[in-house]
Specification:
The chain is an alpha/beta fold. It folds into 3 domains: about 290 residues, Rossmann fold, CATH 3.40.50.12780; about 70 residues, Luciferase, domain 3, CATH 2.30.38; about 90 residues, ANL, C-terminal domain (GMP Synthetase, Chain A, domain 3), CATH 3.30.300. Strands 2-1-10-9-11-12-13-14-17 form a 9-stranded mixed β-sheet, sandwiched between helices. Strands 18, 19, 21, 22 and 23 form a 5-stranded antiparallel β-sheet that branches. The chain has a 4-stranded parallel β-sheet with strand order 4-3-5-6, sandwiched between helices. Strand 12, helix 8 and strand 13 form a beta-alpha-beta unit. Helix 6 crosses helix 7. It is globular and about 70 Å long. It starts with 14 loop residues before the first strand and ends with a helix.
Length: about 475
């Protein structure tokens, strides 16, 4: 892992982070990292999973790097998590130490707390840093599990280095001093590239705090600080759509859309706001280290299916296999289940052998992960995301993809819509349409012009805004639960 930014004076006077209206130089960041590293080393902690009770300041970022320097792995714990989830994470990851700050001094009873915001800045490490080996664990991120218990995805040094190798292989027009947007919660894997990549380049990380309206703060930072590189979730970008006519971002060099399916029309509209930017669509589950396929989005003739931009081809050290599902009737493109393989594939979930045996396997010496995502591949090798396998339903005997229904509903209504499926009282799949509040009074009539009868949602619910989760993604689970609880 490249930590040159810590062991050189080249960037010391440059701004490393901009957080809550305050700038921190590389020297200040380095001193904070060293002070935390030395405190960890005083406790003789090595080869362990260390919890970080997240704070909206410099200390969380410094803690992650310090934990790596001391040959440990970090496990982010969000202060908004309920106690039972925090306890579950601590128990699963076998956490004995949690780093806390003055703003969030208490995590849960059990592990030893180390307050990192009361340490004096250190000019150097009090120990000799030893390079990582591939098998060293770097972080564990907990994602929601189907059983209700969180799943801890383990990423080691080999996984992360393989991912970073891909990034450096793509010759992006970025340089020392460039400005990078970091809009993600630190429990989300896109946050890793959003702070680690700019630090290795000598850039500035502009942190979007949790105490602001996220999409408005993103808008402000993009314009006011002339951001050069931004990874953005499409759901957040959609919230900026009403401002597109006023948004002018000539300084943006790279726009990466990731975290969700990327709508074609939204992409084309935002490209007009960023006349000099190269656009990318990045796809990848947490289990495959941040992202594992990429598509350089052109300005014209963008490859897409069902109104969704292609996810492109595998990144430098990734490969894939497709398991084709049978066609139904006149279906043009057979759905295939996507399995990702290569150096970025996680070693598996922590303490979850049952799911590890189900989703992770080896083909020869190559590790693979069954993503559960459905795709098809065109004649030129480009992949197209069709949705989750668990978002494929049967209506009147027809197999359909919810994403296809959404695309056609958006087209018919010229409004943003979301389709979810629930089981009705007879046990059959039923489609429910959520649509942004609109003046359309003839929704069913409009839908009938674009969709066959079996694909027309049985109910329509109009909403002012769609719910978002903490990572800025559309919260489909919340929409589904609102139906089940009504």
């Amino acid at each position: 892992m490249n930590f040159d930014f810590l062991f050189t004076n080249l960037f010391d006077k440059n701004i490393a982070f901009y957080i809550d209206e305050k700038e921190y130089t590389y020297l200040e960041f380095k001193q904070t990292v060293f002070s935390i590293s030395n405190r960890i080393n005083e406790h003789n902690i090595e080869g362990q999973n260390i919890g970080v009770y997240l704070s909206d300041d410099l200390y969380s970022y410094a803690a992650f790097i310090a934990i790596w320097l001391t040959k440990n792995a970090y496990v982010p714990i969000h202060p908004s998590y309920p106690d039972n989830r925090r306890i579950d994470i601590i128990n699963q990851a076998e956490i004995n130490y949690v780093l806390v700050t003055d703003s969030h001094p208490i995590c849960v009873v059990g592990p030893t707390s180390i307050n990192i915001s009361s340490l004096h800045p250190a000019e150097k490490l009090s120990f000799h840093y030893i390079e990582h080996i591939k098998s060293d664990l770097m972080y564990i991120l907990f994602t929601s599990g189907s059983t209700g218990a969180p799943k801890g995805v383990q990423i080691n040094c080999g996984n992360l280095c393989s991912f970073m190798d891909h990034l450096t292989s793509v010759k992006m027009p970025l340089t020392v001093g460039d400005r990078f947007l970091q809009m993600f919660e630190l429990t989300f894997d896109l946050s890793v590239v959003s702070f680690l990549f700019p630090l290795q380049l000598g850039g500035t990380v502009y942190h979007v705090g949790t105490n602001q309206v996220k999409y408005l703060e993103i808008y402000r930072l993009l314009e006011e600080y002339a951001i050069n590189y931004a990874i953005i979730v499409p759901s957040v970008l959609a919230m900026l759509r009403p401002y597109f006519e006023d948004i002018d971002l000539p300084n943006l060099k790279v726009v990466a859309l990731s975290g969700e399916a990327v709508p074609l029309k939204l992409t084309e509209e935002f490209q007009l706001c960023c006349p000099n930017a190269s656009f990318f669509n990045y796809y990848g589950p947490t289990e495959c280290t941040i992202f594992c396929t990429a598509y350089a989005i052109p300005r014209t003739e963008i490859k897409s299916a069902n109104g969704i931009v292609s996810i492109g081809k595998p990144t430098l050290n990734s490969v894939y296999k497709l398991y084709e599902l049978p066609k139904d009737g006149e279906e043009l493109n057979a759905s295939s289940e996507l399995h990702i393989g290569g150096e970025q594939v996680s070693i598996g979930y922590v303490q979850n052998e049952e799911m590890n045996k189900t989703l992770f396997y080896k083909n020869g010496e190559t590790p693979y992960y069954n993503t559960g995502d459905l795709v098809f591949c065109d004649d030129m090798g480009f992949l197209y995301y069709l949705g989750r396998k668990d978002q494929q339903v049967k209506i009147q005997g027809y197999r359909i993809e919810l994403m296809e229904v959404e695309h056609l509903c958006n087209k018919a209504l010229e409004a943003t819509s979301v389709v979810v499926a629930i089981k009705n009282e007879k046990g059959f799949d039923e489609l429910i349409l959520f649509v942004k509040e609109t003046e359309i009074n003839t929704i069913t009539e409009r839908l009938n012009q674009y969709l066959p009868k079996y694909m027309v949602p049985s109910r329509t619910i109009q909403m002012k805004d769609f719910p978002m989760n903490e990572n800025g993604k559309l919260d489909r689970k919340s929409l589904r639960n609102s139906l089940l609880n009504s």
